[in-house]
Design brief:
about 250 residues; alpha/beta; 7-stranded mixed β-sheet
Length: about 250
Protein backbone atom coordinates (compact mmCIF):
# COMPACT_ATOMS: atom_id res chain seq x y z
CA UNK A 1 0.00 0.00 0.00
CA UNK A 2 1.48 3.33 -1.11
CA UNK A 3 2.11 6.05 1.46
CA UNK A 4 -0.33 8.99 1.39
CA UNK A 5 1.62 12.12 0.55
CA UNK A 6 1.16 15.30 2.54
CA UNK A 7 -0.40 18.24 0.69
CA UNK A 8 2.44 20.77 0.37
CA UNK A 9 -0.06 23.64 0.64
CA UNK A 10 -0.90 22.47 4.15
CA UNK A 11 2.64 23.19 5.35
CA UNK A 12 3.27 26.36 7.32
CA UNK A 13 6.24 28.34 6.07
CA UNK A 14 8.26 27.21 9.10
CA UNK A 15 7.54 23.56 8.28
CA UNK A 16 8.61 24.08 4.68
CA UNK A 17 11.82 25.73 5.88
CA UNK A 18 12.49 22.80 8.22
CA UNK A 19 12.01 20.34 5.36
CA UNK A 20 14.46 22.14 3.09
CA UNK A 21 16.97 22.34 5.93
CA UNK A 22 16.60 18.58 6.49
CA UNK A 23 17.56 17.82 2.88
CA UNK A 24 20.41 20.34 2.77
CA UNK A 25 18.73 22.91 0.51
CA UNK A 26 19.59 26.61 0.80
CA UNK A 27 17.34 28.89 2.87
CA UNK A 28 16.10 30.92 -0.12
CA UNK A 29 14.25 27.85 -1.42
CA UNK A 30 11.60 28.31 1.26
CA UNK A 31 10.58 31.77 0.06
CA UNK A 32 10.89 30.73 -3.57
CA UNK A 33 8.59 27.71 -3.30
CA UNK A 34 6.18 29.38 -0.87
CA UNK A 35 5.67 32.25 -3.32
CA UNK A 36 4.93 29.76 -6.10
CA UNK A 37 2.33 28.05 -3.93
CA UNK A 38 0.50 31.22 -2.87
CA UNK A 39 1.44 34.44 -4.66
CA UNK A 40 2.04 32.90 -8.08
CA UNK A 41 -0.76 30.30 -7.79
CA UNK A 42 1.24 27.38 -9.17
CA UNK A 43 -0.99 24.48 -10.18
CA UNK A 44 1.73 21.91 -9.71
CA UNK A 45 5.45 21.50 -9.15
CA UNK A 46 6.23 21.79 -12.87
CA UNK A 47 4.97 25.39 -12.81
CA UNK A 48 7.87 26.36 -10.53
CA UNK A 49 10.09 27.24 -13.46
CA UNK A 50 12.97 28.83 -11.53
CA UNK A 51 13.29 25.78 -9.28
CA UNK A 52 15.66 23.09 -10.53
CA UNK A 53 14.13 20.06 -12.20
CA UNK A 54 15.82 17.80 -9.65
CA UNK A 55 14.21 19.65 -6.72
CA UNK A 56 10.80 19.73 -8.41
CA UNK A 57 11.04 15.96 -8.90
CA UNK A 58 12.07 15.52 -5.27
CA UNK A 59 9.13 17.63 -4.06
CA UNK A 60 6.69 15.66 -6.22
CA UNK A 61 7.97 12.41 -4.72
CA UNK A 62 7.53 13.71 -1.19
CA UNK A 63 4.37 15.86 -1.39
CA UNK A 64 1.05 16.05 -3.22
CA UNK A 65 -0.25 19.20 -4.93
CA UNK A 66 -4.02 18.67 -5.36
CA UNK A 67 -4.91 21.82 -7.29
CA UNK A 68 -8.27 22.62 -8.85
CA UNK A 69 -8.66 22.51 -12.63
CA UNK A 70 -11.07 24.53 -14.75
CA UNK A 71 -13.54 21.99 -16.15
CA UNK A 72 -15.82 24.38 -18.06
CA UNK A 73 -16.23 28.14 -18.54
CA UNK A 74 -19.29 30.12 -19.61
CA UNK A 75 -19.13 33.74 -20.76
CA UNK A 76 -22.35 35.75 -20.37
CA UNK A 77 -23.39 38.83 -22.31
CA UNK A 78 -23.16 40.97 -19.18
CA UNK A 79 -19.49 40.08 -18.77
CA UNK A 80 -20.01 37.50 -16.04
CA UNK A 81 -17.70 34.49 -16.28
CA UNK A 82 -19.00 31.28 -14.71
CA UNK A 83 -16.56 28.45 -14.09
CA UNK A 84 -16.94 24.82 -13.10
CA UNK A 85 -13.89 23.55 -11.26
CA UNK A 86 -12.84 19.94 -10.74
CA UNK A 87 -11.31 18.88 -7.44
CA UNK A 88 -8.49 16.34 -7.15
CA UNK A 89 -11.03 13.65 -6.19
CA UNK A 90 -13.37 14.29 -9.12
CA UNK A 91 -16.07 16.52 -7.61
CA UNK A 92 -17.35 19.68 -9.28
CA UNK A 93 -17.80 23.12 -7.73
CA UNK A 94 -18.78 26.47 -9.21
CA UNK A 95 -17.30 29.94 -9.01
CA UNK A 96 -18.28 33.17 -10.74
CA UNK A 97 -16.46 36.35 -11.77
CA UNK A 98 -18.82 39.32 -11.62
CA UNK A 99 -17.35 42.46 -13.23
CA UNK A 100 -18.69 46.00 -12.80
CA UNK A 101 -17.19 49.43 -13.46
CA UNK A 102 -16.09 49.86 -9.85
CA UNK A 103 -15.16 46.33 -8.82
CA UNK A 104 -14.52 42.78 -9.95
CA UNK A 105 -16.00 40.24 -7.54
CA UNK A 106 -15.40 36.53 -7.15
CA UNK A 107 -18.37 34.51 -5.90
CA UNK A 108 -16.96 31.27 -4.49
CA UNK A 109 -18.05 27.95 -3.01
CA UNK A 110 -17.14 26.62 0.43
CA UNK A 111 -18.56 23.07 0.25
CA UNK A 112 -19.20 20.38 -2.33
CA UNK A 113 -22.97 20.25 -2.19
CA UNK A 114 -24.94 21.45 0.84
CA UNK A 115 -26.86 19.95 3.75
CA UNK A 116 -29.37 22.78 4.32
CA UNK A 117 -31.95 21.89 1.60
CA UNK A 118 -33.23 25.45 1.10
CA UNK A 119 -36.07 25.17 -1.41
CA UNK A 120 -34.96 28.06 -3.63
CA UNK A 121 -31.36 26.81 -3.99
CA UNK A 122 -30.19 24.32 -6.62
CA UNK A 123 -27.25 23.28 -4.44
CA UNK A 124 -29.70 22.47 -1.65
CA UNK A 125 -30.99 19.62 -3.80
CA UNK A 126 -27.55 18.01 -3.75
CA UNK A 127 -26.10 15.99 -0.91
CA UNK A 128 -23.12 17.50 0.83
CA UNK A 129 -20.15 15.43 -0.27
CA UNK A 130 -17.47 17.16 1.78
CA UNK A 131 -16.08 20.50 2.88
CA UNK A 132 -13.56 22.27 0.70
CA UNK A 133 -10.12 22.55 2.25
CA UNK A 134 -8.81 26.06 2.82
CA UNK A 135 -6.29 25.71 0.00
CA UNK A 136 -9.04 24.67 -2.44
CA UNK A 137 -11.03 27.78 -1.54
CA UNK A 138 -7.92 29.92 -1.99
CA UNK A 139 -7.12 28.19 -5.29
CA UNK A 140 -10.64 28.93 -6.50
CA UNK A 141 -10.23 32.66 -5.78
CA UNK A 142 -6.76 32.75 -7.33
CA UNK A 143 -8.01 31.13 -10.56
CA UNK A 144 -10.87 33.62 -10.79
CA UNK A 145 -8.35 36.40 -10.17
CA UNK A 146 -6.37 35.14 -13.16
CA UNK A 147 -9.56 35.27 -15.25
CA UNK A 148 -10.13 38.84 -14.09
CA UNK A 149 -6.61 39.90 -15.07
CA UNK A 150 -6.83 38.14 -18.45
CA UNK A 151 -10.33 39.32 -19.42
CA UNK A 152 -10.46 42.75 -17.75
CA UNK A 153 -6.82 43.64 -17.10
CA UNK A 154 -7.40 44.16 -13.38
CA UNK A 155 -7.24 42.11 -10.23
CA UNK A 156 -10.16 41.04 -8.09
CA UNK A 157 -11.32 43.70 -5.66
CA UNK A 158 -13.92 41.68 -3.75
CA UNK A 159 -14.77 38.12 -2.72
CA UNK A 160 -18.18 36.87 -1.62
CA UNK A 161 -18.83 33.42 -0.15
CA UNK A 162 -22.20 32.97 -1.84
CA UNK A 163 -21.54 29.92 -3.99
CA UNK A 164 -22.15 26.26 -3.17
CA UNK A 165 -22.42 25.34 0.50
CA UNK A 166 -22.94 27.05 3.86
CA UNK A 167 -19.66 28.78 4.79
CA UNK A 168 -20.28 28.71 8.54
CA UNK A 169 -20.60 24.91 8.44
CA UNK A 170 -17.03 24.84 7.12
CA UNK A 171 -15.88 27.40 9.63
CA UNK A 172 -12.19 26.61 10.12
CA UNK A 173 -11.40 26.18 6.42
CA UNK A 174 -13.26 29.36 5.44
CA UNK A 175 -11.45 31.43 8.07
CA UNK A 176 -8.08 29.94 7.15
CA UNK A 177 -8.74 30.61 3.45
CA UNK A 178 -9.58 34.23 4.27
CA UNK A 179 -6.41 34.48 6.34
CA UNK A 180 -4.42 33.34 3.29
CA UNK A 181 -6.32 35.69 0.96
CA UNK A 182 -5.61 38.69 3.17
CA UNK A 183 -2.01 37.76 3.94
CA UNK A 184 0.83 39.73 2.38
CA UNK A 185 2.31 36.48 1.11
CA UNK A 186 -1.06 35.54 -0.41
CA UNK A 187 -3.34 37.80 -2.47
CA UNK A 188 -3.07 40.64 0.10
CA UNK A 189 -6.77 41.48 -0.13
CA UNK A 190 -8.45 43.75 2.38
CA UNK A 191 -10.78 41.85 4.78
CA UNK A 192 -13.26 44.69 4.27
CA UNK A 193 -13.56 43.50 0.68
CA UNK A 194 -14.58 39.97 1.71
CA UNK A 195 -18.16 38.99 2.60
CA UNK A 196 -19.30 35.69 4.07
CA UNK A 197 -22.97 34.96 3.44
CA UNK A 198 -24.86 32.61 5.74
CA UNK A 199 -28.34 31.10 5.76
CA UNK A 200 -28.19 31.62 9.52
CA UNK A 201 -26.12 29.40 11.82
CA UNK A 202 -26.61 31.23 15.10
CA UNK A 203 -23.92 29.39 17.06
CA UNK A 204 -21.25 30.13 14.48
CA UNK A 205 -22.31 33.76 14.06
CA UNK A 206 -21.57 34.17 17.75
CA UNK A 207 -18.23 32.44 17.19
CA UNK A 208 -17.38 35.03 14.54
CA UNK A 209 -17.90 37.73 17.15
CA UNK A 210 -15.77 35.88 19.68
CA UNK A 211 -13.02 35.50 17.08
CA UNK A 212 -13.21 39.23 16.24
CA UNK A 213 -13.12 38.66 12.49
CA UNK A 214 -12.62 41.69 10.27
CA UNK A 215 -14.54 40.62 7.16
CA UNK A 216 -18.20 41.33 6.41
CA UNK A 217 -21.15 39.06 7.23
CA UNK A 218 -24.32 38.85 5.15
CA UNK A 219 -27.44 37.08 6.43
CA UNK A 220 -29.68 35.55 3.76
CA UNK A 221 -33.15 35.97 5.26
CA UNK A 222 -35.33 35.40 2.15
CA UNK A 223 -38.42 35.93 4.33
CA UNK A 224 -39.36 38.43 7.03
CA UNK A 225 -41.21 36.03 9.34
CA UNK A 226 -40.49 32.62 10.84
CA UNK A 227 -43.53 30.91 9.32
CA UNK A 228 -42.50 31.62 5.75
CA UNK A 229 -38.82 31.10 6.47
CA UNK A 230 -39.56 27.68 8.00
CA UNK A 231 -41.27 26.66 4.75
CA UNK A 232 -38.36 27.54 2.49
CA UNK A 233 -35.36 27.23 4.84
CA UNK A 234 -35.48 24.28 7.25
CA UNK A 235 -32.51 25.69 9.17
CA UNK A 236 -34.85 28.37 10.53
CA UNK A 237 -36.58 25.84 12.80
CA UNK A 238 -33.52 25.82 15.06
CA UNK A 239 -32.12 29.23 14.06
CA UNK A 240 -35.20 31.46 14.01
CA UNK A 241 -35.16 35.17 13.32
CA UNK A 242 -35.13 36.37 16.94
CA UNK A 243 -32.13 34.19 17.74
CA UNK A 244 -30.32 35.33 14.61
CA UNK A 245 -31.01 38.97 15.44
CA UNK A 246 -29.40 38.55 18.83
CA UNK A 247 -26.35 36.85 17.36
CA UNK A 248 -25.94 39.55 14.68
CA UNK A 249 -25.93 42.21 17.42
CA UNK A 250 -23.19 40.30 19.22
CA UNK A 251 -21.21 40.04 15.97
CA UNK A 252 -21.52 43.78 15.37
Amino acid sequence: MSEIKQNIRHLEVEELAAYFASIGEKKFRTKQVYEWIWKKNAQGFDDMTDVSKELRTSLAEKFSFPALTVDATQFSNDGTIKSRFSTYDGYKIEGVLIPTEKRNTACVSSQIGCSLTCKFCATGKMDRKRNLDFDEIYNQVALINEQSEKSYNKKLSNVVFMGMGEPLLNYKNVLKAIDRLTSNDGLAMSPKRITVSTAGVAKMIRQLGDDKVRFNLALSLHAADDKKRNEIMPINESNHIDVLGGRINLFL
